[in-house]
Amino acid sequence: MRSGVIARKVGMTRVFTDAGEHVPVTVLQIDQCQVVAHRTTEKDGYVALQVGVGKAKVKNVSAAERGRFAVAKVEPKQKLAEFRVSEDSVIPVGAEITADHFIPGQFVDVTGTTTGKGFAGGMKRWNFGGLRATHGVSVSHRSIGSTGGRQDPGKTFKNKKMPGHMGVERVTTQNLKVVRIDPERGLVLVEGAVPGVAGGWIQIRDAVKRKLPAEVPHPGKFRENGSNGSASKEAPAEAPAAEENA
């Protein structure tokens, strides 16, 4: 199980296949996504990586947090997230995960915060049909109608679908296909829509319901702290068998 990354949603566009078909894609940018800390079984009871992205103002970071970032030798981060990993998928602290951590053709799960819609009615929030548009209805065509409260039970049950606040919820969209990557600019293009507004933070991780391709780098593609090149930990090649003497 590999680590995920935090990316910023840039917006939507489309790309064309070799057959001339257009594919709608969401552009996600990975910029300075660094490993900030490790979570170990001995100390925390589980194995995970804490990654951070974005540059935070020092005055907005507490002294304890500044000390933690100083130990990791990274700048204070604006957004932090934890990703559970297997013990053989731990990336060094301070390493920067790059866009070629993912490969075209693999499937990913993306998590974001949906766009806030404010206070919404039942038709917009729950897709209710509303009341009749003509006979017998006056100035309440978009009403939700009866909520079911009669003498028995004499109340409206909790969790009834009614007007209220809509949006600003954590939503995960699964099995989005990676169409293209651009490691130079840190871009990952995934097919389809991604929850959230342009400029919002998005978490990308390997799809849990799809088999991970064998070509993906393990534990991932990253740049060591202070290095310009990218690195990945690959399985060691088998040594050639020694020839037997005649």
From TrEMBL:
<dbReference type="InterPro" id="IPR019926">
    <property type="entry name" value="Ribosomal_uL3_CS"/>
</dbReference>
<keyword id="KW-0689">Ribosomal protein</keyword>
<dbReference type="Pfam" id="PF00297">
    <property type="entry name" value="Ribosomal_L3"/>
</dbReference>
<comment type="similarity">
    <text>Belongs to the universal ribosomal protein uL3 family.</text>
</comment>
<dbReference type="InterPro" id="IPR019927">
    <property type="entry name" value="Ribosomal_uL3_bac/org-type"/>
</dbReference>
<dbReference type="GO" id="GO:0005840">
    <property type="term" value="C:ribosome"/>
</dbReference>
<dbReference type="InterPro" id="IPR009000">
    <property type="entry name" value="Transl_B-barrel_sf"/>
</dbReference>
<feature type="region of interest" description="Disordered">
    <location>
        <begin position="139"/>
        <end position="163"/>
    </location>
</feature>
<keyword id="KW-0687">Ribonucleoprotein</keyword>
<dbReference type="InterPro" id="IPR000597">
    <property type="entry name" value="Ribosomal_uL3"/>
</dbReference>
<feature type="region of interest" description="Disordered">
    <location>
        <begin position="214"/>
        <end position="246"/>
    </location>
</feature>
<keyword id="KW-0699">rRNA-binding</keyword>
<keyword id="KW-0694">RNA-binding</keyword>
<comment type="subunit">
    <text>Part of the 50S ribosomal subunit. Forms a cluster with proteins L14 and L19.</text>
</comment>
<keyword id="KW-0488">Methylation</keyword>
<protein>
    <recommendedName>
        <fullName>Large ribosomal subunit protein uL3</fullName>
    </recommendedName>
</protein>
<feature type="modified residue" description="N5-methylglutamine">
    <location>
        <position position="151"/>
    </location>
</feature>
<feature type="compositionally biased region" description="Low complexity">
    <location>
        <begin position="237"/>
        <end position="246"/>
    </location>
</feature>
<comment type="function">
    <text>One of the primary rRNA binding proteins, it binds directly near the 3'-end of the 23S rRNA, where it nucleates assembly of the 50S subunit.</text>
</comment>
